Batch of 2 targets.
Target 1
Amino acid sequence: MNVVTRFAPSPTGFLHIGGARTALFNWLYARHTGGKYLLRIEDTDRKRSTPEAIEAILDGLSWLGLESDEAPVYQFARRERHAEIVQQLIDSGAAYRCYCSPDELAEMREKAKAEKRSMRYDGTWRDRDPADAPAGIDPVIRFKAPQTGETVIEDAVQGTVTVGNTELDDLIMLRADGTPTYMLSVVVDDHDMGVTHAIRGDDHLTNAFRQTQIFNALGWDAPVYAHIPLIHGPDGAKLSKRHGALGVDAYRDMGYLPEAVLNYLCRLGWSHGDDEIFSMEQATAWFDIIDVNKGATRFDYDKLSSLNAKYIDESSNDRLIALALPGIEAALGKPVSDTVRQRLVNGMDSLKSRADTIPQLVDLSMFYCLDRPLAYTDKAAKMLDDDAKARLADIRGPLAELDTWDQESVESTVKAHAEAYNLKLGMIAQPLRAALTGSNVSPGIFEVAAVLGKNEALGRIEDAVAPR
RNA sequence: GACCCCAUCGUCUAGAGGCCUAGGACACCACUCUUUCACAGUGGAGACACGGGUUCGACUCCCGUUGGGGUCGCCA
């Protein structure tokens, strides 16, 4: 079988993390089987669909590299086809006109709730004579759902799921204004697009029953459904705007690399033995729906960050500098000079092993970019007491005499000096760190001195020694 | 409330009846390395929700309980 999968977001907001993973799983499965991965924008809700949301979704997917194999299908553009199918259903007696007003329906639900019955449409117009139709009211078209027996779906993730048909009411397929609803459009589009596997969030599980019924009424084969577990917030509650339900652009802005996000998302609900860190090529080779878990998962920033740190480590210095530069220049309030850029190039290897995210990398890099005199952190200032300043003043001379200024020469000079004066290395190294970086935390101080260059390093020492 | 789904360390997970004294990863703790902070390495603590079955044998199969989640729109 030629596999065709699809990701079908509704453009009513950004692409959130759950949607991104749904897209990823569909993409992986299509790639794994050598099939096709399609994108369908479900924009039949004209009131809530926006071009901005479409843009955000497309941007998010492209940032993650989840490109579809064909141009996106816009569901609303296919409304005539949908209406045509509905007409077909009416003709065959599988659908009917319902003249209940929204208010009547709301009332019906209220009453059902009060009587503690389930809140389903009661089928008022199901078998009523169309001649009773009230004048001046545009009817909706409802699906005449089977009232006996049960509907069974063989879900590729959840297994066999059965529901009694008495639980399902007659859903609306065409609104009073003649536009198709989601439930109908999905069925028609999945069929027309040749979708063989519908991988989607578990929140669609109950929809699968109704869609299966429509497929049956149409005499079409339903795709294989695979309802993947939902992603919850760190506290186990449903992802809401308050926590976790961010657009993927937010993750980019938080300094996460797309390959880290992808790798992390793979491990949320899917696994390949104990493999934790792997490329999309490996994931493609390994991915199968049977290995997807059933239970909901929680989003864990710590683990994402840890993965991100590893991907940052493996990134080229050029890429990292390009990613960090906007943040650095924003903090600086001006573009970086060529000198500073060169320092970043030279210092990046040890900077990047310390950063979990790009903003952290920016923070870590700032001391290479700042102009003299440096501002000191509290701890650095404390480190620069009078004794420390005296020691710095002492070491300045030998350093100034160096002809070759590199990590080795600075290190041997400082070490020799410490030995000669019978000082522990830290007694000089720590004040030196404070002077050179303005902080008590930095990469190896001799490397820092080398990267800074003789002039800048000596200047920063003088700044620290000078009375403030 | 009705219906549906789920249930292994705090979190993500391995586990397809004996391989399990339940493995890995993140987080946590300790140690090593180190001028600092990281990185890295080593070690540690930490789970099969509960109760019944089935079986010679259950984390694995069945039932129930409890807990969690989802759905119940002229939204998708």
Target 2
Amino acid sequence: MLTIGKLGEAAGVKVPTIRYYEQIGLLPEAERSAGNQRLYGRKAMERLAFIRHARDLGFTLEAIRDLLSLSDRPDQSCAAADAIARAQLAEVESRLARLTALKAELERMVVQCAGGKIADCRVIEVLGDHSLCATDHRHPETELAQ
Amino acid sequence: MLTIGKLGEAAGVKVPTIRYYEQIGLLPEAERSAGNQRLYGRKAMERLAFIRHARDLGFTLEAIRDLLSLSDRPDQSCAAADAIARAQLAEVESRLARLTALKAELERMVVQCAGGKIADCRVIEVLGDHSLCATDHRHPETELAQ
DNA sequence: CTTGAAGCTATAGTTGCTAGAGACATTAAG
DNA sequence: CTTAATGTCTCTAGCAACTATAGCTTCAAG
Ligand SMILES: [Zn+2]
Ligand SMILES: [Zn+2]
Ligand SMILES: [Zn+2]
Ligand SMILES: [Zn+2]
């Protein structure tokens, strides 16, 4: 059995984060030692590794909650899990598209500035006027999140 | 003079967001009508458009605060403004790199799943075990933000 | 002149944590 | 065995950048 600190170290998750996951019900309530300290076994460790990995792949905690409850029912079809993954892929693709446009605009800005006074700075000028942009990079309904 | 609603419409910014910007000091306190409603002139409109555009390009409100105070001093060198823009470009590039890796992993996951039971689902399997990943996509110190 | 939209303030909620305060538990050294 | 240094406990508050709600006042159209 691992203490919370050891578990965090093993899984690459900070201690308060583990407690937070328990608090929001993503991890079950941990067993406690005689002195009221949390103790974790292999199952908890695997569950936390799953969460950590899914977070690293950009899934929200809500999506992870769903994936975890799916993974607890091995006999069911995996269609729902696959749908969550495909939605996450679509999300990532849309962010990629947006960031690619942003990168192009930012590059244009910094390249075009000759480096004089603020009054002549292309960066300041472009920020004040989107019509000077080459692409339509504007924030659609897509959230900035992640 | 525009009311807050008209200003928001013109600049593509929601009304509560404008009030929020005023509250945090990003916009100056607006003039008020006899009935205590905010009124905006062309300067406020330009300032809000600048903020909106910079937000669309991914700058943080802190960076925008700095850019705005720089743009209020037209005689000074634009080096500081350019540095902020280059930092933002670097940030975007690092997010792009990470998202590109995520996209590759997510694609691998969804492609490899044959679509049967959860017990055999490649999505669930890979989420539980990063060693099944092709790339090291893990979250460095870089924040997930935006 | 009435009514509905738009404005006002103030507070709380969102996501996914992170940081602190103050108290108890465990471990290692002396 | 005692102390000191960590580690852990709970609880609360804070971060970005808004968004939503409640309960009010003001404005503009018919
Ligand atoms: Zn410049
Ligand atoms: Zn633009
Ligand atoms: Zn599957
Ligand atoms: Zn992985």
